[in-house]
Each structure stands twice: as structure tokens, then as C-alpha cells.
Write a structure and sequence with these properties.
single chain, 221 residues, mainly alpha, Tetracycline Repressor, domain 2, TetR, TetR/AcrR family transcriptional regulator, HTH_TetR, Homeodomain-like_sf
Length: 221
């Protein structure tokens, strides 16, 4: 028989659901407690305020990204690794989409979280450059160091701003879908198009087709 999740873990996971669906600004600790069928006092026993729940969720997101944003050990990267990185990014963006949607507000509300995020962002940019250099070393991308740096930064800008861009085109942010985020990952892949080695282009073309979502399904008329 499956064990019932611990109360603290239930608070974290259900808060994530509420933040993703309703938006973090629209959810209070009272809403979370009512959703879980517990008293606010019971919730405060585990978390003193909403900022602590958000910090816990950010730690989970941070660990998930740190876990995949690294070169494989003992071998060169392949085109198949490109699929892995992009799909892993999509999964993280979708699972923690409220962080992307409400990022500026969250960082303004919590200086400690803002400091953690700055370190996380720099680490992601550093790792992204290492990974892109791995693709260059493997002969998959044809780029110099300046181009690697620019591609890493542009990719980061798209990944971190895509959800907010979607919200500017829709009347209700709750109607975001995973396909809409998939188009954002496609945009990251599209940045690499001019740098692909000729011999890998057929294999990467299949990845383009896998990630492509028509723009009319992303931006409503």
C-alpha cells in the first residue's frame, strides 16, 4: 500500500498546483490550507509564510535544472543529447511555470530568493556555455567562443521570459498549455540553425518537427 505523503510535502506539492493554475499572487496561505483541508495553524507549523513555500519550490526547481544541465560523463555529446536537454527544459518550465510567470514579483518580494536566483542564473549560463562547447567539440555545432556566449545568453532569455510573453498575448494565464511552452523550446533550437554542421542537419530536422507548434496555436487571433 502506498504511503500517504508527509504533510510538509503535501503542502509543497499542492501549493505548486495552485500557483501554476491560479497564479502565485492570487493564492494565500489561507487558500492553501483550505485546499488541503487543514487549519492555517497547521500550515504555519510547517511554513511560517508563503515566501517559505516559494523558497522550497524554487529549491526543487533549482535542483531539477542543476541535475540535467551538465555534460554527460565519459563521452562526447550527441544529437540525441540535444533532444534530452530540450525536453528536460520543457518539463522543468511546465512543472514550475508559476516561477517563470511571476518571476520579477517573486524576486522583488524576497531579497534572499533574489540573491539565490542570481547565483542560479549565473550557474545556468556557465553550464549552458560548457554544453554548447561540448557540441562544438563533437562537431555538431560550428561556432567560436563569442558565438557560444551569445547563444547561451539568448537561449536563457527565451527560456526565462517565454511564459511571461505568452501571458501578454492571452486574457487568462491559466489557459497556458504544455504545447505553448514547447514552442518556446523550439525557439531555443531555432537559434542554433545557422551553426549546425551539414552532416547532422537531417537528424536535427527530426527534432525541429518534434518540437514545432504552429504559431496560431500559441498566439490567439
Amino acid at each position: 500500500m502506498a504511503l500517504r505523503p508527509k504533510t510538509r510535502d503535501r503542502i509543497v506539492q499542492e501549493s505548486l498546483t495552485l500557483f501554476n493554475v491560479q497564479g502565485e499572487r492570487n493564492v494565500t496561505t489561507n487558500h492553501i490550507a483550505a485546499h488541503l483541508g487543514m487549519s492555517p495553524g497547521n500550515l504555519y507549523y510547517h511554513f511560517r509564510n508563503k515566501q517559505e513555500i516559494i523558497a522550497e519550490l524554487f529549491a526543487l526547481y533549482e535542483a531539477q535544472v542543476d541535475g540535467f544541465l551538465r555534460l554527460p560523463e565519459g563521452r562526447e555529446v550527441t544529437v540525441e543529447d540535444k533532444t534530452f536537454y530540450l525536453e528536460a527544459l520543457l518539463a522543468a518550465m511546465w512543472q514550475y511555470r508559476f516561477l517563470h510567470r511571476d518571476l520579477e514579483h517573486l524576486l522583488e518580494s524576497d531579497p534572499e530568493l533574489a540573491a539565490r536566483y542570481r547565483l542560479f542564473a549565473q550557474r545556468c549560463l556557465d553550464h549552458a556555455q560548457i554544453i554548447y562547447r561540448g557540441f562544438v567539440h563533437a562537431g555538431i555545432l560550428l561556432m567560436n567562443d563569442a558565438q557560444v556566449e551569445a547563444l547561451s545568453l539568448n537561449s536563457w532569455i527565451i527560456v526565462t521570459s517565454w511564459v511571461r510573453f505568452l501571458c501578454t498575448t492571452r486574457t487568462e494565464s491559466a489557459d497556458l498549455s504544455e504545447d505553448m511552452l514547447r514552442r518556446g523550446i523550439y525557439q531555443v533550437l531555432a537559434l542554433e540553425g545557422g551553426y549546425l554542421a551539414p552532416e547532422v542537419q537531417p537528424a536535427v530536422r527530426a527534432l525541429y518537427e518534434r518540437l514545432y507548434v504552429p504559431l496560431e496555436l500559441v498566439i490567439p487571433d
